[in-house]
Design a protein that fits this description.
Blueprint (H helix, E strand, L loop, with lengths): L1 H24 L3 H25 L3 H37 L1
Helix pairs in contact: 1-2, 2-3
Length: about 90
């Protein structure tokens, strides 16, 4: 059973490289932001798999929840920044 968690963690680590490529070469800023959120979600799953492997899922759930909160706050802050930047460009254009 322990080997299954290791295989899933390695598979998720490989899967993270697909959105990472899009973060580096994304055509728009929004694509990069979405892929960064995808990387964070996959990272949280890996953190939980590590918790299962060490039989300390209670501690790793707390870590994953803190990471999810930081990801959410970062995404909201970035969206707010993009919204204010677009609004200021629109006001300066008139």
């Amino acid at each position: 059973m322990h080997h299954n968690f290791v295989y899933f963690a390695v598979l998720l680590t490989i899967i993270i490289y697909v959105p990472f490529y899009r973060v580096v070469t994304g055509p728009t800023l929004y694509d990069r932001m979405l892929c960064a959120g995808s990387i964070a979600t996959n990272s949280m799953v890996i953190i939980l798999l590590v918790g299962f492997m060490f039989n300390r899922i209670d501690m790793f759930i707390d870590i994953a929840m803190a990471y999810a909160g930081l990801n959410f706050i970062g995404t909201i802050a970035f969206a707010k920044y993009l919204g204010s930047t677009l609004k200021s460009k629109k006001n300066h254009g008139n």
